[in-house]
Amino acid sequence: MVTDKTALRRTAHSCAVVFCVLLACLALSSCDRGEPGQGTPVGEQPGLAPATGGTTAPREQREDRAAAREDETVQKTEYIEKGDLAALKKRGIIRFVSLTADDQQYLPRKAIVTQTHRQLANRLAERLKLQGRWMIARTPEEALQMVAEGRADVFADNVSDTEQRREIVSFTIPLLQTPDVLVSGKKGPDISDPKNLRGTELIVLAGSSYADRARELVKKYPDANLSVREVYLVDERDTLFDLVSKGDNAVTILHKNIAEDTLQYRDDLKIGAVITEPEDIAWAVRQDAKQLRTRINNFLTRTLVTSVPERTSHWYAIKKSGVLRFATYNGPLSYYLWRGVLRGFDYEMALAFAEKHDLALKIVVVPNEEDLVDWVVDGRADIAGASTTITRARMEKGVQFSVPFLETPQRIVTNRNKPPIETLGDLAGRTLTLRAYSSFIETARVLQKNGVDVEIDVAPPDMSFATILNKVAEGEFDATIEDAYIAEIQAALRPDLDIGMQVSDPLPQGWMVKQGHKDLLKQVNRFMEKFAGSDEYKKLFAAYFKPDKHLVQKINARVVPGEDLSPYDKLVKKNSLERDFDWRLITAQMWQESNFNPKATSPVGAQGLLQVMPRTGEDMGYPPPLYDPDKNLQAGVKYMEWVRNRFKDPLPEDEKLWFTLASYNAGLGHVQDAQILAEELGLDPTKWFDNVEVAMLKLEQPEYFEKARYGYARGAEPVAYVRKISKLYEAYTNMATGDVAMGQARAGGSPPAAATLSGRSCRYGCWTPSACGPQLPAAMQTSPLSAGAPCPPQPAAIPFVPGRWLWPPSPPLSGGAE
C-alpha cells in the first residue's frame, strides 16, 4: 500500500494522464437516474436559479411510489456522522453527495460504456460492502460543507482540488487533470483570448471554482466591463448551456473535459481559450477519515489502471481485449441500418473477420467531416475502411493498407439536364465538386496537370459523398467524380444523374491499419486472401456491387442519421422520458419485439409494438386490447420501469439496462436465478455479458435448473434478445444523433493531404494517380492529354482474386518503364 503522500500523488498523476479518457465524459456531475433503494436527494432537485434568489423550483413527482421512496431515503440519510470507515461500516451506509441536476440518465457518445462518478462510487460502495445513498448539493461549496460537517461522507463529483478547499476537507488521488476554458454560444463573443472580452456577462455555477475564475477575470481586465452572474443548478445542466447559447454576449467557464464532452452532443456551443493551468479533479472526504481515504485511493488506483478504455492496436492487445474496433462512415454501402438490420459491405466483412477470431465487433462511426486515417493513426480504431482507395498520400500520413478486396475505376457524374461529359475535352470549363479527404482530388489534379481545363472545388469536410451527388442531381453542383459502382447505384436511385466518362484505371480499395502493426496487418491480409475465395464473399460482392431493384429498395429504406428511427418516435420519446429510459433503447426493443407492427400478436397472445401480455397490461393499469401504439407503449415502458426497480444496489446503472431487458423477455425470477448461479460459478452476478448470460444458458440443463427456484428457463432466448437489442441500440445512438459511437471527435479536421502526382495509365493514355507509382513520364508532364482518348469502359467493381495482386496497372501504350 502506498503511504508516502508525494509518491501517491505522483502515481495518481501518471494514471490520470494515461487514463483520463476513461472519465472524459464525466460531466458537472453524474446524471444517472436515482435508483430504487439507492437513495434520492435531500431537499429539492436542482435547475437554474439566480444565486441571489436562494430558492429552488420544486420538481413534479412522477409517481406516489417515488415520493414515498424519497421520504424514506431522506430519513435514512439525515444524520450527522463524523467517524471514519469503521463508523460507516457500523451503520452499513456510505453517503455520496454530488451536483446531479439531470433527472434523465446521461448517455455519452459511447452509449453506456463510459464510467461516470456515480458508477464509480456505486462500485466503491459494493467493494466496501456498504449501501450507497445519494444526496444533492446546490453548489460545490455546499457539498464540501456537508462532508466536513458529517452530513455526507464523500463528495463524488468533478471536484477541483485546491489549497483553499484542503483547509476543510481531504482529497483523494486525482482521477484526471484538466484546465478551465471559456465556453460561449456558437454565435457568441470572441473567446479565443480573454483579452477580447468586452461587456461580457460571465454566467457561472455559484460556489464553484468557476466563480473564482470569473472574478479573477473581472479583476484582471478592469476596462473590459465584465460582469459575473452566479446561478444555482435547479433543474438540468443543459439549462445553463441554453442560457449561454442564447445570450448575445454571454460566456461560461467549465473544466475542459466537461466542455469537450458537452460538445459531443450539442452543436450550439464553442470552446475558447484555456484560462488556467491543468488542475487535479478528485473526490473529497473528511479530514480525519484517513482509513476511508486510503481505501478510496486504493480503489481508484486499481480502477484507473485496470479499466483502460483505450489500448494499442497491436494484434495481441486486440485479442486480449476481445474487441475489434472498426472505423467507418455511415453510408449506403459501407455501413447502414435497414429495418433493424445492420448492413454494409465493409461492415459485413469486418463482422466475418471478428467472428473468425472470436472477437466482439465495435463499429466506430466517424463523422463525415473527419478523415478515417486520423482515427487509425491516433489509436481510436484498430482498422478503418469505407470504400477506401489505396493511395500514397494516405500511407504517408501513417497507415498501411491491406491487400485490396476489390478494384473500381472512377467516373464523372453530372446532371442529366447538363451537357454530358464523354471525353476529356468535355471537361473544359466545367467544375468538379469533390469529397474532402478523397482520392478524387488527386485524380482531378492530375487531369489539371496534364492540360485538362477543369476547375476543382473541394466540398466542406462535413459534406458526404451522398450529399454531393444529391446536389449534382438537383443542379446545384456541376459535376463530381465517384467510384463507378457507387455512381451506378446512385444513378439508379436518382434518375437526374448521368454517368459520364471513366477517368481512371480500376483502383484498388482496402482496409487501413496503423503503420508498424505488422501482426494485425498479417491477420487482415490472411483473412482477405482466404475470404475472397469463398462463396460468402461472392454473394456479398454480388449483393453490393451488382445493383438491382432489391439493393436500391434497401438503400432507399435505410435509416438516415438525423431522421426518424421508426413511425412512432414521438410516442416512444414521450413515454421513455416519463420513466427515465433512453428512447433509442425502447425503439430497439420495439423493433425486436414487433418489427414496428402495432397489430402484431404472438402465438401466446402478446400484443402490439412491445408485445405486452394482456394480464401484464392490466396489472400496469392498461387493460387489453393493447394494439393502440400509445397505450401499448405506456403499458410496456411502465412494466420495464417496474422490472428495473426490482434490481437493487449495487447493480451498476448501465448493467441494469441489460438485466431489465432480460427480465422483460424471460421473467424476473429466471434472471435472479441466473444471478445466483453466476455467483456459484465464480462469475460476476452484477454483469450481464459474459457473466450472468452464461449462467442463464446453463438454466436449460437439468443439473442446474433442478436447483433453481424458478426451474427451467429457455436461456438462449433472453441471451439472444439482449445481444440483438444492445447492438441495435448502439447503432440507433449513431443514427438518431449523427454522433460517433466511440472516441472523441476532432473539431473541424485537417485539410486534405497534398496530392502525390505520381501516375499510371490505362491503354488509351488516361493518366490517374497511383498509390505507389512513379512520376509521370516527361512527355506526359508537358503535353496535354488527347481530348478524344478517354479510358475504355471498365466493370464498376472487380472482385479480389486470391493470389493476384490487383495493384499493378496495365502498361502504357509506348512501352518502357512507367
TrEMBL record:
It is found in: Cell outer membrane. Keywords: Cell outer membrane, Membrane, Signal. Transmembrane segments: none annotated. The lineage of its organism: Bacteria, Pseudomonadati, Pseudomonadota, Gammaproteobacteria, Cellvibrionales. It is a peripheral membrane protein. It comes from Microbulbifer yueqingensis. GO terms for cellular component: cell outer membrane. InterPro entries: Lysozyme-like_dom_sf, Solute-binding_3/MltF_N, Transglycosylase_SLT_dom_1. Its main location: membrane. Pfam families: SBP_bac_3, SLT. It comes from the Bacteria. This is Membrane-bound lytic murein transglycosylase F. Residues 111-319, 323-548 form the Solute-binding protein family 3/N-terminal domain.
